[in-house]
Design a protein that fits this description.
Helices cover 0% and strands 52% of the residues. The protein has no helices and 13 strands. 12% of the residues are buried.
């Protein structure tokens, strides 16, 4: 919940005035300072951004009003920032605005991987990927069993006949699982390893 309060400079309450409020939500990037080289992946949350609610309410005798809402979103979306904005217009038509913003984490920790410094490896070499689990406050979390998958990206081409009888070639990416590595996180990063058996583009 959030509390809207409007008072005069001398301390008197702006009771009975109308407060217009609006609740917005937007994705927040999780980037703990000690793990700048790590990538913390979660789903695309852009579709969840926007205005969730809004309205007008009269301030009570104390010049206040409480707005209650549920800050809830799918855990796959990652952290989201909720912002409540309120505007109170005084009797002289002067508008006064304020805002309250909070980041809401849907999980107790996030799993991150550090991309290799060497982007091109030879077939037969071993790929080593450090893995960490980090709490919302940036502290490492030990004991989290994590499955890390290496996938090869293949390109499949299909032919399609257009309305004018011309042939169109469609190219699409296909993820081909190569190897799974199950690790248990420790406070220093734990390393998952993969043998690059075949040549190709991997992720």
């Amino acid at each position: 919940e959030a509390r809207i309060v409007a008072k005069y400079m001398h301390g008197g309450a702006r009771s009975g005035r109308t407060a217009r409020w609006q609740l917005n939500r937007e994705p927040h990037v999780f980037a703990p300072s000690n793990y700048r080289r790590y990538v913390f992946a979660y789903g695309d949350a852009s579709g969840l951004a926007g205005t969730l609610a809004g309205g007008e309410r009269f301030l009570d005798d104390q010049g206040a009003q409480v707005i209650r809402f549920m800050a809830d979103h799918p855990s796959a979306a990652g952290p989201m920032r909720y912002t409540l904005e309120a505007t109170v217009t005084d009797i002289d038509r002067q508008a006064y605005s304020g805002r309250l913003s909070r980041v809401v984490h849907p999980a107790a920790f996030y799993v991150g991987v550090r991309p290799p410094a060497q982007q091109v490896l030879q077939q037969g070499e071993t790929l080593k990927v450090p893995v960490v689990a980090i709490s919302p406050d940036g502290a490492p979390v030990a004991g989290v069993e994590t499955r890390v998958r290496l996938e090869r990206i293949d390109h499949h081409t299909t032919a399609r006949m257009a309305e004018d009888e011309s042939v169109q070639l469609l190219n699409r990416e296909v993820d081909v699982p190569q190897d799974d590595c199950v690790v248990k996180t420790t406070k220093p990063a734990v390393v998952s390893t993969y043998k690059l058996v075949e040549a190709g583009r991997n992720r």
